[in-house]
Amino acid sequence: MINVLIADNHPIVTLGIKEVLKDVPDIEVVADVVSTTALFKALEKISPDVVILEMDIPEINGIATLRKFNQEHP
Fold first, then answer.
1. Rounded distance, CA 68 to CA 74, Å?
2. Average pLDDT, stretch 25-53?
3. Which of 3, 7, 63, 66 could be bridged to 48 by S-S, CB 3.0 to 4.6 A?
């Protein structure tokens, strides 16, 4: 099973991604978050295989978020 976390603050985008992935075998959306604070809180509890990250996510931009993500969750 491939666990996916969606980090996007646009509800319609999140719903669309979930809709596309819901019938895909071996893929499960395990969480969705709307900010980088929520992203890093979620990553304390779960370890997804894939993170779909909005590049313009609120609080910290996408590139800085990726750098922090790589440092804290290699």
1. 10
2. 96
3. 3
- Using the structure block, give the residue that is written with the tokens 């999140």: 14
Q: For 4-28, how does the pLDDT look when each residue is reduced to its tens digit (9 = 90+)?
A: 999 999 999 999 999 999 999 999 9
Q: Which residues have C-beta within 8 Å of that of residue 67, sequence separation ≥ 6?
A: none
Report which of 69, 74, 33 is spatially closest to residue 54, judged by C-alpha positions.
Answer: 33
Token code pair at residue 61: 């931009």
Sheet holding 2-7, edge to edge: 27-33, 2-7, 50-53
Q: What is the helix (H) or strand (E) element at residue 38, kind and residue range?
A: helix 36-45
DSSP code, position 26: T
